[in-house]
Specification:
This protein has a domain of 112 residues: Nuclear Transport Factor 2, Chain: A. 40% of the residues lie in helices and 29% in strands.
Length: 178
């Protein structure tokens, strides 16, 4: 093949490609994809906000763990009375007793470890019952006192509210006051 024929063949091929592109239907231009690491910070936070507001399809066990037990664990270990009380339904008659129970508990113990293992979750309409093993280890604020180690199988009764699942009762109800 000579150099002149190569040039004419390239011209024909180029012309054919150009004609085929011209015959293709026009598609609205799209924004080029940006690599994740180059996305502006506000775009990433906007995406995170959209992801957080998307309804998540969780089964009941996952919902209860997320909405109740993990919040209760963090609140107890952080010794945060307001967060602990936020897990419970304030409309129940023993709500004021809970306040006093947890306040006394937090005054007695400095470092607290709270663990749980969900054994069973059942539900009826807007109510749920959860049975789990609870372990708690607590170091007393007063060093002359004995450390606490307690385990029990607890039964939580809950109801769904606009703010998620709330505990309406638990047994043994004196677990935190013994």
């Amino acid at each position: 093949m000579t150099k002149g024929s190569q040039t004419s063949w390239l011209g024909v091929i180029f012309l054919g490609v150009s004609l085929n592109l011209a015959a293709m239907p026009r598609i609205a231009p799209t924004m080029p994809a940006q690599p994740q690491s180059q996305a502006p910070q506000s775009d990433r936070s906007d995406q995170a906000d959209r992801d957080a507001t998307k309804p998540q399809s969780l089964d009941l066990t996952e919902e209860v763990v997320r909405d109740v037990l993990s919040r209760l664990q963090h609140a107890i270990e952080g010794r945060n009375l307001n967060q602990v009380l936020a897990v419970f339904d304030p409309q129940k008659p023993h709500y004021a007793d809970l306040h006093d129970q947890f306040m006394a508990f937090f005054q007695r113990y400095g470092v607290i470890q709270f663990r749980y293992q969900v054994l069973q979750v059942t539900s009826e309409k807007d109510h749920a019952f959860v049975i789990c093993d609870i372990d708690i280890d607590a170091t007393p604020s007063d060093e002359s006192q004995v450390a606490l180690r307690r385990s029990a199988q607890m039964r939580f009764q809950m109801k769904i509210s606009p703010k998620g699942w709330k505990v309406t009762g638990f047994k043994p109800d004196d677990f935190f006051s013994q």
